[in-house]
Amino acid sequence: MSRHLGEHVRLSLLGWLTTIATAFCFLPTISNQSYLVQAAALCGLLVAVGIGLRALRTPAPGVLLVQLALLVEVLVVAYGDKFKYFVLPTSATVEGLRRDISAGLEVAQKFAAPTPKSAGLTLLVLFGIGVVAVLVDFFAAGVRRVPLTGLPLLVLYTVPVTALPDGVPVYGFLPGAVAYIALLLADERDRLSHWGRLVSRTPHQTTHSTMDTSGLVSNGRRVAVIAVTSAVVLPLFIPAFSSAWFDNGRGVGNGPGTGTSLSFRDPMVSLAQSLRRPVKEDVLVVTGPSAPEYLRLVVLDQPGPDNWSASALDLDNTLALSQTLPAPGGVGDDVQGSISQLDIATTDEFPTDSSWLPVPYALQEVQIDGDWAYVPRDQTVAATSLTSADTLEEYSVSFSRLAFTEEQLRASGPAPAAIQQEFGRVPDDVPAVVQNVALSATTGAQNAYEQAVLLQTFFRDSEQFSYDVDAAYGYGYDSMAEFLQKRRGFCQQFAATMAMMARTLDIPSRVVVGFLKPDREEGGSYVVTSHDVHAWPELYFEGLGWVRFEPTPRDGASPPDYAANLQLPTDLTPTNSGIAPTEDVRSRNTDTGQNTTSTNAGATGGSGGDGAAPSKYWLVLVLLVVVLLLPAGLRQGVRRNRLNRPVEQAQAAEAAWMELRDHLLDLRLPWTGSMTPRARERSVAGLLVDDTDGLQALRRLALSVERSRYATAALPGADPAIDVVEVMDVIDRRAERAQRLRAMFLPASLLPDLRRAWQAWRDGHRRREPDEVR
Amino acid sequence: MTSVDTLETVTRRVTDNIEKVIEGKSDVVRTSVTVLLAEGHLLIEDVPGVGKTMLAKALARSIDGTVKRIQFTPDLLPSDVTGVSIYNRDTRDFEFRPGGVFANVVVGDEINRASPKTQSALLECMEERQVTVDGTTYPLDAPFMVIATQNPIEMEGTYPLPEAQRDRFMARVSMGYPLPKSELAMLDSHSTTSPLDDLEAVADAAEIAKLVDIVRTVHVADTVKQYAIDITSATRRSPELRLGASPRATLHLVRAARAHAALEGRDYVIPDDLQALAVPVIAHRLITGLEAQMGGRGAEQVVTSIIRSIPVPESTHSDRYV
């Protein structure tokens, strides 16, 4: 009994260790890393209580319930306040916790990993780890189903996996994996020590054994290497799941950006949704001495994995709004500008979770209450807290209305290398047709300005392109080719495609999402509605900075003055023939269209990494299949290694015998105790019933083994590998289908094999140690 | 024809011959022949009237060698066994007159009815295969085998064999009562004449000596030798036994296993041979402790459970296959 108890304690402690090791995977997701210490203490307490209760012979479900209750109580006491009698939670406690938790959930939802410190979030993480620890304890020590502990551990592991766009780093994965394997091994060892391996593993036997276990060692290493390689190396070759995996680009997403950054609701998706809303809602009321300008919200300058996305917001590189803001980067002294002022009031329709403030370009001053900061790189104003927009009512801005002239634009030289590098990158998976069309559309252009205007003209040609807010495209850059072929779309597609085309022509570019210049006037104010949401490209011209273009042929979106007219020699005017998509592109586009027409929420203009390509589902499926097939694959590997390796007959016989043993174990048929080959033959013969060929093969196999062990010469003319295959075939034929399937996919022999390999490795290690000491 | 095949043929002739007389006891017959080929001595123990003497005589007669029978009685003298020097008036010298042991096969009937002094006279003959009388040593013929019968020690008028002497017998077998069918057949064959009278020798002494040589060549793997040692040393550690098996028992076990293997046509010993012979070869040498006696377990049962508990030797080849 005491030994039995000792095993439970050992398994409990190992389970605790495994849970904490698995909890390492949260390290990259939370900046408050003290959670690990708290989790270790909390789970330690739970496991200790479990051990104590089991020592008192409490039934397993009872232990589980007590542990869960304790978990809740400890967390409530640690994180709540306003208790009755110090420990009893009151309704105020519950309310406080509820607030904490919902704040934690919001933080988890809105901030990219690692999330900032939040008591609610830590509480949630601790609760999750605690529940897993209790379940692991229940499975490992309570009901002795150690392999099942993998399920809660896996659930724990999936949380950071989904939160981290690049997956969990190796240091987050390895401790848990190693600890889990250790747990399995410990259990298997205990189990076997109960069930009669005593016989062959008496100390007496071991000391006299001259058996060379190096083979076991190498096999064990092989299995370990395969497992670790698949787990660690394989993910390097398949694309990591982005945070968009589970929301597929719709609605709330963790948004663009990695690193220490705020991430926000996706502007592009909101854009498409907003434009498609049947009801036009008032969003902003703009008052000022003169007509307002385009209001910018957010800049998408990164060609992400699927489409344009915003750069990470680096809070260190923002400016407080209390000061006069610097002129936008790249604007030269000779650019004329007139100062204007606008008072902007938000309506109830303005989203309270907006992370961005609608402001005009070339801001000089912003007067606003709340947590907002200026982002000089993008010339935007970003929220620095989650509640910034909650209290937003009105604010006023003064800005410089820059007047670019055609001459200035024509005279602009090439962009500096730094800008070119930062805003000029074209991803490899942008289809060649984008550049081809860009080149043919800009035939005859003498400089970057002419190229830009020709691109704009190309898109604004109403005979070529039509504005259609319901146009739906899939994700990824292929959608640009599709758009160029279908030639229907709205600002998303126009802005995104033109910006990318500009880049293919070496003009630095980015996409801006914001509001159109409002044209509805009511009582001296301009009203910006939900249908004014817009996206447009900005191209960089040296000496002028970022210059807006307007490729979208929609009402209210007229091209800026400096790009409205372009005179080219007539023979150089680009023709349609040069622009027509190639056959190849057309067929590709058709394919994409079939795949994506049903994706209504799809947005070609695409957002910060939130579009997940459907092919990723296949990856999960493939991965799942790989995981499911792994035991079968390993088992087949062991079998091939045994049966196909050219060795002398004695070894071949022994290998075939082990294969027969493992095959029976896989089929959950008995292979117990220590028997001579003949005795074993008699016991196995019962499974073959009257199959004469099978019985003869079994006879030969047993004889081969017997001779390999005890005689001086092998059995002439016998091939144990063939015999064992025949015997196994006969056994298989008589087994039930379910039995065979289980043997194939869940081979029971694999774990004992691993255990043996481990034991052999350890024995080998121990044997070497005294030598070294000597 | 390989040597092992020759052995098989000859021994089959012998066993078939014996089984003409002893019906339904083929395992006992086989053990007897095994002991013969392993150069050991056989002790047949059972209640009177089940055919002990018949088996001994049948085995002796099947071999065309010299056979002598010594009826052990309380008044049997050691010199009756070994021989005596008598003064010859004609030659005026002492002349050695060989005793009952000078034969290829000696049947010692009811050996435990003689006094311990006489019993121990057999000791030297059995172990050293020679007799020393008046300072002169006389070698015994080869092959030489003592087949002794005895009644269980509980029977009246018996002297239990000392441990040292029991240890010299390679194996002990019990006849057991015949099956009803065999007993019926016996009534037919034994009613008028003794079938023993018709029994003819089917192998001569030289042939048997050759077979013994063949048995000596049977291969015993190191792991199998170790297995034999494991078995005997387990009897020494067993809490149920007061006296375990001697090293001579290990020797006898391996020798008998060689003969057993050869009888089955193999030129190598397998653990199954040792398992089959462990009880007849080891059990009669053991003395059970109080614990086993209280539990009603005899030495045979103890040996059987020891065999079950010891793992059989496995591969000696490097285990590269997990």
Give me the secondary-structure topology.
The complex is a heterodimer of chains A (774) and B (322).
Chain A: H1 2-23, H2 35-55, H3 60-79, E1 83-84, E2 88-89, H4 91-110, H5 119-142, H6 150-163, H7 170-194, H8 203-208, H9 214-237, H10 267-276, E3 282-287, E4 295-300, E5 302-303, E6 308-309, E7 319-320, E8 336-346, E9 356-357, E10 363-367, E11 372-375, E12 380-383, E13 394-403, H11 406-411, H12 417-423, H13 432-441, H14 448-460, E14 466-467, H15 478-486, E15 488-489, H16 491-504, E16 509-515, E17 520-522, E18 525-529, E19 533-541, E20 545-548, H17 583-596, H18 615-643, H19 649-666, H20 677-688, H21 692-710, H22 720-734, H23 737-745, H24 750-773
Parallel strand pairs in A: 14-15
Antiparallel strand pairs in A: 1-2, 3-8, 3-18, 4-16, 5-6, 7-11, 8-13, 9-12, 10-13, 11-12, 16-19, 17-18, 19-20
Chain B: H1 3-19, H2 26-37, E1 42-45, H3 52-62, E2 63-64, E3 67-71, H4 78-82, E4 83-88, E5 93-98, E6 105-109, H5 116-128, E7 130-133, E8 136-139, E9 145-150, H6 163-168, E10 171-173, H7 180-190, E11 203-204, H8 205-216, H9 222-237, E12 241-243, H10 247-263, H11 271-282, E13 287-288, H12 290-294, H13 299-309
Parallel strand pairs in B: 1-9, 1-10, 2-11, 3-6, 6-9
Antiparallel strand pairs in B: 4-5, 7-8, 12-13
Helix pairs in contact in B: 1-2, 1-3, 1-8, 2-10, 8-10, 9-10, 9-11, 10-11, 11-13
What string, H for helix and E for strand, traces the elements of chain B in order? Answer: HHEHEEHEEEHEEEHEHEHHEHHEHH
In whole angstroms, the N-to-C terminal distance of chain B is: 40 Å
User: Total helix count of chain B?
Assistant: 13
Name of the CATH first level of the largest domain in chain B: Alpha Beta
Counting structural domains of chain A, the number is 4
Radius of gyration of chain A: 35 Å
- Output the radius of gyration of chain B: 21 Å
Q: Determine the fraction of residues in helical runs of chain A and give it as a percent range.
A: 40-55%
- pLDDT < 50 runs, ≥5 residues of chain B: none
Q: What's the number of extended β-strand segments of chain A?
A: 20
